[in-house]
Give the backbone structure.
Amino acid sequence: MNLFLDSFWRALAYCVRPRVIALSFLPLVLLVALALGLGYFYWEGALDWVRSTLEASSVINNVWAWLESVGAGSLKMVLAPLIVIFAVTPILVVLSLLTVAVLMTPALTLLVAERRFPELERKRGGSLMFSLLWSLGSTVLALIAIFISIPLWLVPPLILVLPPLIWGWLTYRVMAFDALAEHASAQERREIFRRHRGWLLGMGVFCGYLGAAPSLIWASGAMLVVMAPILVPLAIWLYTLIFALSSLWFAHYCLAALQALRTEKALAAASVAAPAPALIDLEALPLPDDTPFGSNTAR
């Protein structure tokens, strides 16, 4: 618990550093360019497809008729854009995580290592290619879990538990691996994952709930469509900043755990290498004269 809380407060303090804030804008620029490019080429087509799908449903048409009867027929105009935006949100989250993992996590981990652990040996147990494969594989598993669990979201309590749990697992897998890739060996990484899996997963779940906070921006109703050029970049930047906090938190935690692990192994090795105390041969020791006083004969 001490390591958990200490790492969190250190990560918060690092988030206000100019270097961290500047790094948080790099993924934002890439993601905004991607969002604008997709919007330019596919926005109208996506809207037409959603509208045609809605109009083909008799249930939706009955809902439209009821809304018009109560004076809320204008909602029909904003429903299709809202559906498209809500559908794109998970993709933006995944891209934010991967972008942060590729661009920010190594730089933030290096920052933490330089300031807190300058003497920590780098064993480079995870290459860049292996890190990318690890992140992509974990992301695919998380997306599969998301799609499989969608029917369970209809149960009110589960929608508040399952998505953050899945995103938390993904965050834990990606961030913890990247935090240890430069400094830990493969064996040390597996040992830390084994010892600290519960705490790391808890950190990931907490970060998953933090990552859901910017989704409140999408709840702006009809204003979301009008303010999309402002709200979408703001939401992406908030996602990125939260992921930066997650990366710093995992870096502080994992590197401290790695240092403690190496200290533990060094102490264990020193205790084994130290010579055992020599055994004392009691029979070889000279014993004090136990002859009673005055028993010696005079010469």
Summary: The mean pLDDT is 77. The two ends are 80 Å apart (CA to CA). The first helix runs from residue 2 to 15.
